[in-house]
């Protein structure tokens, strides 16, 4: 087997493989690369020593059986016998479901999560979006401090378990998207700096030195990240990648890294003969992220839209702190703007940022499905002091309103695990750092962050306490009981309606018509021959739909069709979808 590693600053490199040591030779065709041949097969342990130093794991390791600090292991991907023929599933008409493997079940494994896929198929979602799977120290964590960007966290089950999960998902007709982190690596178990200039002091990010995308040596760093992305899509038959915080990818080169990545992914999709998607998390408010490359954009296929979330959240909760401030002044007006124009901040002043922010969406060339709409995500729940979901403070009726706006609105919908039944389990920030100093730093940092917002130290869950993760695991006794069953049935009904009515997947933002009453707290919009009405208020609302030849297609509470005056009388904290005759 041929082993190779990029180590441009090393004077000598040795390969430690199956207990034997051999010198590696410089590759005459590729500057900075070293190669060696050795007897090895699936599972063989190996690592590299630079200039006589300790044996380190392979930067391109496909498996870390003993965690990020241990030796790497060979993975022969072709040994896995795929059971499900799969032509792929694009995100054009998708309903996504964000899932964290470590808390989706108490077992916290990919195999245990696969056992729950029937629930998602019955729900009607089309894609599972897995939160990051790369190895990180310890057993439990969110995954955003991963290292070894080509490997699967061993406590989740490792590479074979991911293949079994994808196979099982495809058998249910579900696509699989994986959240990957290119903007930083975790602080523990990251050996990339020993091998080469993977990071640069030219730019800084909230996590420290930036990943080197534009300084000397960045050609190989970009190839490393793109190679990792393509490996996930090819070797594990994934249907797409969610790219974490692309606004933190500091790149001044003429061809931005995201453009290079999207080019490579589109090329792979052509080679494989199935659709592949890149979904960005971007705080730029810039539609060029999802504009095709041929039109001068970066070519991602979709992006998360936090502006929709913020408008919906303030309408539901009345919260106005932090980045919610501008949305909370007139939340229904903010909701109307995002649902018809994509972004709320499209060049307007952002109080939170202290400056103008964003750029207008060209509705003539940017379809609505390029934006993901959601009421809850791992970030928007987990980054709250106590990880409380909307269900902790809202009635089932308001949860139904949130689902209605998410699932019948113009954007590609996404749900966060458990949202579909109004789960009451929190989703808190938890870690399992094996380095005591790092663990204490994270604990203190979390408490200090929220103390600045008036929280008492004892009210902030300890990230390192195993009970914090335990509290965050879904309670699977809930979905079929009490109001949870009703909320779940409502989600299923809305997703089924979305699939059945083409108007609900019309990508034309300019065609969405909105009306609202900020004081009466009702909001209504039209999509083709369908009208959707939501009453955020506790009191009944008279919603003028302007049509007296309509029938109720779905309603949270029993309602009569609009009368001769075209008015829908909607109970408090409820919603309805009406078909126009």
Task: Write up this protein.
It is found in: Cytoplasm. The active site is at 244 (nucleophile), 281 (proton donor). Its main location: cytoplasm. Its EC number is 3.2.1.141. The protein contains 15 helices and 27 strands. By secondary structure, the chain is of the alpha/beta class. The protein has three domains: 2-56, Immunoglobulin-like (Sandwich), CATH 2.60.40; 96-500, Glycosidases (TIM Barrel, Alpha-Beta Barrel); 507-580, Immunoglobulin-like (Sandwich), CATH 2.60.40. The strands form seven sheets. The chain has an eight-stranded parallel beta barrel, surrounded by five helices. Strands 2, 3, 6, 7 and 8 form a five-stranded antiparallel β-sheet that branches. The protein has a five-stranded antiparallel β-sheet with strand order 21-22-23-27-25, covered by helices on one side. A hairpin with a 2-residue loop joins strand 2 (13-17) and strand 3 (20-23). The longest helix is centred in the C-terminal third of the chain and has 19 residues, at 482-500. The protein starts with a strand and ends with a strand. The mean pLDDT is 96.
Number of strands: 27
% residues in beta strands: 15-25%
Number of domains: 3
What's the name of the CATH homologous superfamily of the largest domain? Glycosidases
The shape, in one word, is elongated
CATH class of the largest domain equals Alpha Beta
The CATH architecture designation of the largest domain is Alpha-Beta Barrel
Structural class: alpha/beta
Unreliable segments (pLDDT under 50, ≥5 consecutive)?
none
Q: For the terminal residues, how far apart are their CA atoms?
A: 68 Å
Taking all Cα atoms into account, the compactness measure Rg is 25 Å
Mean pLDDT over the full residue set: 96
Largest sheet: 8 strands, parallel, barrel
Write down the oligomeric state: single chain
CATH topology of the largest domain: TIM Barrel
Question: How are the strands of the largest sheet arranged?
Answer: 9-10-11-14-15-16-19-20
Fraction in helix:
25-40%
Question: DSSP helix count?
Answer: 15
Active site: 244 (nucleophile), 281 (proton donor)
Family: Belongs to the glycosyl hydrolase 13 family.
Main location: cytoplasm
Pathway: Glycan biosynthesis; trehalose biosynthesis
């Amino acid at each position: 087997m041929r082993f190779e590693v990029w180590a441009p600053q090393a004077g000598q490199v040795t390969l430690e493989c199956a207990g034997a040591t051999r010198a590696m030779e410089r590759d005459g065709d590729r500057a900075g690369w070293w190669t060696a041949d050795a007897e090895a097969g699936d599972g063989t342990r190996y690592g590299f020593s630079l200039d006589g130093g300790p044996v380190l794991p392979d930067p391109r390791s496909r498996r870390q059986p003993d965690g990020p600090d241990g030796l790497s292991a060979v993975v022969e991907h072709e040994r896995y016998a795929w059971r499900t023929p799969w032509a792929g599933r694009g995100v054009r008409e998708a309903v996504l479901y964000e899932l964290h493997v470590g808390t989706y079940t108490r077992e916290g494994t990919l195999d245990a999560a696969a056992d729950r896929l029937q629930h998602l198929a019955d729900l009607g979602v089309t894609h599972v979006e897995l939160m990051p799977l790369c190895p990180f120290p310890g057993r439990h964590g969110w995954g955003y401090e991963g290292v070894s960007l080509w490997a699967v966290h061993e406590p989740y089950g490792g590479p074979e378990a991911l293949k079994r999960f994808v196979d099982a998902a495809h058998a249910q007709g579900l696509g699989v998207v994986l959240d990957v982190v290119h903007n930083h690596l975790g602080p523990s178990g990251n050996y990339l700096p020993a091998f080469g200039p993977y990071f640069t002091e030219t730019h800084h990010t909230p996590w420290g030195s930036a990943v080197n995308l534009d300084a000397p040596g960045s050609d190989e760093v970009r190839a490393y990240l793109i190679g990792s992305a393509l490996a996930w899509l090819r070797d594990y038959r994934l249907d797409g990648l969610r790219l974490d915080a692309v606004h933190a990818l500091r790149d001044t080169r003429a061809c931005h890294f995201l453009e290079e990545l999207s080019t490579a992914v589109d090329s792979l999709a052509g080679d494989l003969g199935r659709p592949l998607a890149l979904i960005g998390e971007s705080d730029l408010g810039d539609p060029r992220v999802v504009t095709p490359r041929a039109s001068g954009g970066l070519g991602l296929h979709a992006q998360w839209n936090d502006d929709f979330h913020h408008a919906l959240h303030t309408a539901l909760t009345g919260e106005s702190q932090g980045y919610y401030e501008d949305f909370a002044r007139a939340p229904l007006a903010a909701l109307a703007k995002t649902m018809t124009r994509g972004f709320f901040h499209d060049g307007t002043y952002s109080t939170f940022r202290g400056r103008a922010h964003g750029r207008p969406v060209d509705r003539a060339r940017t379809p609505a499905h390029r934006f993901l709409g959601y009421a809850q995500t791992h970030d928007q729940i987990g980054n709250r002091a106590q990880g409380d979901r909307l269900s902790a403070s809202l009635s089932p009726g308001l949860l139904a309103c949130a689902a209605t706006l998410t699932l019948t609105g113009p954007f590609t919908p996404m749900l966060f695990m458990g949202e579909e039944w109004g789960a009451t389990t929190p989703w808190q920030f938890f870690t399992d750092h094996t380095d005591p100093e790092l663990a204490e730093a994270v604990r203190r940092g979390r408490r200090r962050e929220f103390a600045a917002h008036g929280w008492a130290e004892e009210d902030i869950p300890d990230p390192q306490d195993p009970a914090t993760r335990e509290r965050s695991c879904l309670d699977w006794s809930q979905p079929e009981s009490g109001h949870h069953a009703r909320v779940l049935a409502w989600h299923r009904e809305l997703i089924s309606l979305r699939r059945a009515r083409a108007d609900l997947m019309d990508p034309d933002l300019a065609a969405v018509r909105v009306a609202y009453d900020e004081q009466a707290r009702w909001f209504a919009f039209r999509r083709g021959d369908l009208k959707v009405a939501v009453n955020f208020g506790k009191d009944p609302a008279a919603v003028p739909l302007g049509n007296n030849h309509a029938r109720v297609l779905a309603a949270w509470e029993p309602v009569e069709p609009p009368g001769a005056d075209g008015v829908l009388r909607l109970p408090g904290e409820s919603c309805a979808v009406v078909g126009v005759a």
